[in-house]
Design brief:
about 15% strand, aminotransferase, Arc Repressor Mutant, subunit A, 4-stranded antiparallel β-sheet, about 450 residues, Aspartate Aminotransferase, domain 2, PyrdxlP-dep_Trfase_major, pyridoxal phosphate, PyrdxlP-dep_Trfase_small, alpha/beta, Aspartate Aminotransferase, domain 1, 8-stranded mixed β-sheet, DNA-binding transcription factor activity, 18 strands, about 45% helix
Length: about 450
């Protein structure tokens, strides 16, 4: 009987939200009111509300009650479906360690008190930098705390490195194609001459890389070696070692953006930093994608020749990074809460990526290629020549599916308009198959329709 009542209550509230009867932000009846109305226990109502929260249909405010989220997207024909979000690249909302970090924040304030709210060391809280040396050592990055600088995320590191002079006296920057759009934006803003080199799931052309290092006055080469954005590709250890050797040979720095290696299923995969004996690798680490993006905490391990210049540029940028976030992160790492969280999310994202891989193999047209990483956040779909990414993105938006136009991940001369990027991190597992089916259906329709239909869809 209790289960039947629960199902009735749960289904009724869900349908009223999806049907638009309960509007976004509207307050739901209290647990006591609903229990009296349906003549059931409060536990039955709590269970219904809890499961509606897990589906992000409602949210609770302590001592205030429950409210409707209602972030549904309409279909062209007017019916409502769940928005399938392959675009957003933050962590899975259900996997964010809110409660653990709340505990860490409280404890950090109790331990450090006024220190967290006063002016702090531009390089970062010394105790956090010391803790990071232990954390990074477990990841084959052996360094000392005096070489670590805490930053406001990895994007700040990238922007500072793009804008500052380097000891090698060179001025141009080399980036993989495709790559993280944040580095492309930083290069544009700073008006830096940039070269690209193609990266595929097979790796990179080392003859071309050596040519670039030798003749193109390269200040640094930016790379995301593990589970990169947008392909999901990871270089082998031998490939990483070879890149470092070329950097040594031609006096080129490597900016190793190691944002996703914690999700790598291969425990023997080393960072490029592990092969650097001449301080040519600048190791960048961020905690945003796998914990809480709002922390805005990153770290960089700096070669000795770069340290003073980097700190000067950083000081002029923000004086110091958020000390409250630093204090909480220190406790989060020291308590080993991070390690427990990491084990949970590695399995979560591995499972989601496997679902996506199977769905792509089952649903996509045979002439459509796609990358197949085993883990991480991203994979990409290469489109037939007739189909341009902007038009497909528009059509999918009308069907309630968001994806990223791959054009923004390329320098202008590398753009072909035939790639979309998908991120599985914020998509519900049960939505992945449905989303791939919709993508496949749109691809079939666009291939069979005359070109003028594609042009009408363009915005």
């Amino acid at each position: 009987m209790t289960q039947t009542k629960y199902s009735l209550i749960y289904d009724e509230i869900k349908q009223r939200i999806l049907g638009g009867e309960l509007k976004s932000g509207s307050k739901l009846p209290s647990i006591r009111q609903l229990a009296e109305q349906h003549a059931c226990s409060k536990n039955t109502i709590i269970k219904a509300y809890t499961n509606l929260e897990k589906q992000h249909l409602i949210y609770s405010i302590p001592k205030s009650g429950y409210f409707v989220v209602n972030d549904r997207y309409p279909l062209v024909n007017g019916s409502d479906i769940d928005h399938i979000d392959f675009l957003s690249a933050g962590p899975d909302p259900a996997a964010m360690p809110y409660e653990d970090f709340q505990h860490c924040l409280n404890q950090a304030i109790n331990l450090h008190k006024g220190e967290l709210f006063a002016y702090s060391h531009p390089q970062g809280i010394p105790s956090l930098r010391m803790e990071l040396t232990n954390h990074l050592q477990d990841r084959q990055v052996f360094t000392t705390s005096d070489k670590i600088c805490i930053t406001s995320g990895s994007q700040q590191v990238i922007n500072l490195l793009v804008s500052m002079p380097f000891p090698n006296g060179k001025s141009n920057i080399l980036i993989e194609q495709p790559t993280y759009f944040g580095v492309i934006e930083s290069l544009k803003v700073n008006d830096v001459k940039t070269f690209g080199i193609e990266r595929t799931m097979a790796g990179i052309d080392f003859e071309k890389l050596e040519y670039m290092f030798r003749y193109k006055d390269i200040k640094f080469f930016y790379t995301v070696p593990s589970l990169n954005n947008p392909l999901g590709h990871t270089y082998t250890n031998s490939q990483k070692k070879k890149m470092v050797e070329l950097a040594h040979k031609y006096d080129v720095y490597i900016v190793e953006d190691d944002i996703f290696s914690d999700l790598d299923l291969n425990a023997k995969s080393d960072p490029m930093y592990a092969y650097d004996s001449k301080e040519k690798v600048i190791y960048v680490k961020s905690f945003s994608k796998i914990t809480l993006p709002g922390l805005r905490i990153g770290a960089v391990v700096l070669p000795e020749l770069l340290k003073n210049t980097f700190m000067r540029f950083k000081f002029s940028n923000d004086l110091f990074s958020s000390t409250v976030s630093q204090g909480a992160l220190e406790i989060y790492l020291k308590s080993r809460m991070f390690n427990g969280h990491l084990e949970r999310i590695k399995e979560l994202y591995r499972r989601k990526m496997e679902i996506a891989r199977i769905a792509c193999n089952r649903c996509l047209p045979t002439n459509v290629r796609f990358t197949e990483p085993a883990a991480g956040f991203y994979f990409s779909i290469y489109l037939p020549k007739k189909i341009q990414a902007p038009q497909l993105v528009t059509m999918l938006k009308h069907r309630g599916v968001s994806v990223s136009d791959g054009n923004r991940l390329f320098l202008s001369e590398f753009r072909k308009g035939n790639m979309i990027r998908l991120c599985i991190s914020q998509v519900e597992e049960e939505q992945i198959q449905q989303g791939i089916e919709i993508i496949a259906d749109c691809l079939h329709k666009m291939e069979n329709e005359p070109i003028r239909f594609v042009e009408r869809m363009e915005i």
